[in-house]
């Protein structure tokens, strides 16, 4: 039995609103936008969504999710006008990607725990993106330094360069302790004329180099060839 198609009248209305704004005779500002000009708004709206999630206010989340959704629709409409791709292409690609990345749901692969799912996901990404030769490939270098550091520490753990579960030199177990500590470090840096973001980004670049060197050494070791 065929299931009835899902109905999303408000989503269709939003798509129609955007199309009207960008159509001839619509809004001059909307007509003038490009993928590049919209990047600043995508970044801003994303941060506002993060803030709404952290605040836990449903009404704010609805608003900010809508702003991020609008950016997706906006970019898709621009691309469709240029004859490059459409919103349907974006949705179809994501559907195929999610089905392909979840063979334990849509296929016959078994993955009973979250760790099993991550392992399957990583294996599939290796197959889909064979040009990536390092675990650091594909990580956006434009991420904020703290987020980038967290990401790379996870990759360093994955290749066995370090144990990301070890407490390290400073063992902080609660976020209400971590926040003031990070703030104190930034305050000290500022007092001494140092750029905290740049300093951490430099250290992170060094970690990225270490990861890639470790991967190269592991690939050349006798154990790797066995």
Automatic annotation (TrEMBL):
Residues 33-106 form the NTP pyrophosphohydrolase MazG-like domain. Pfam families: MazG. InterPro entries: MazG-like_dom (IPR004518), NTP-PPase_MazG-like_N (IPR048015), NTP_PyrPHydrolase_MazG (IPR011551). Gene3D superfamilies: MazG-like (1.10.287.1080). PANTHER family: NUCLEOSIDE TRIPHOSPHATE PYROPHOSPHOHYDROLASE (PTHR30522). This is NTP pyrophosphohydrolase MazG-like domain-containing protein. It comes from Rhodoglobus aureus.
